[in-house]
Amino acid sequence: CDEEILHGKYGQHLSSHKEMKDGELYSYINKGGRPRQHLLSLTRRAQKHRLRELKRQVKAFAEKEEGGDIKAVCMTLFLLALRAKNEHKQADELEAIMQGRGSGLHPAVCLAIRINTFLSCSQYHKMYRTVKAVTGRQIFQPLHALRTAEKALLPGYHPFEWKPPLKNVSTNTEVGIIDGLSGLPLSIDDYPVDTIAKRFRYDAALVCALKDMEEEILEGMKAKNLDDYLNGPFTVVVKESCDGMGDVSEKHGSGPAVPEKAVRFSFTVMNISIAHGNESKRIFEEVKP
Q: How far apart are CA 228 and CA 246, in angstroms?
């Protein structure tokens, strides 16, 4: 009759259907003893006992269809049951946990939020603690996770090796920020004494850029039917540039006024080609350099 009723009231509801013959075939008969308790209120042992037949069927299905992954079958059944009742929010959270994402934000996303909302580390930590205490869930990631995510974005994070080795270039790949004025013949006439210069080592920054472009490079190789050809050599054409950033003390909004204007040295990867046989195949080109 398509009417949803409570399990306990099923027998009473059935008696209202006079037209049904063999009604007792459909009704649950309690063979004496205690009335059946709800599945979730039972002990784990009793739950196993009650569900043993269903469990056997699920196991047989999982082994036949899903390579024995019982968890995936049960989780999918649960998700379908939730979605059938329009409980999509709970289903989405469960799905995120199943896929290893959890209901929390990714550390890189938290880092972006912290920077875009101008929060100091201590302010962010305060927010992280408050949200965790109020919701009981770790939606934001702790500071140490943000620091790790930040490291992964910096040059010098990816190990690399130049073949053939470059002249006058260190083989060390672990580099942080270096003094941008090192090696320049310093004279007071050229720039003010209190000039601050920090930069990343050029080769390490280039490796970081190429690592970020990994997907584009692989897609370009696929487009040229170079699927299995991964050992190079690659030719990377780079355009260097330098632009002023204005007064950075304005941008930070705190700390002392900075007399200098900041300058940013940068490069653009213009194109990448790969030597294949006697010809060179271009696998990447920057459309808007």
A: 47
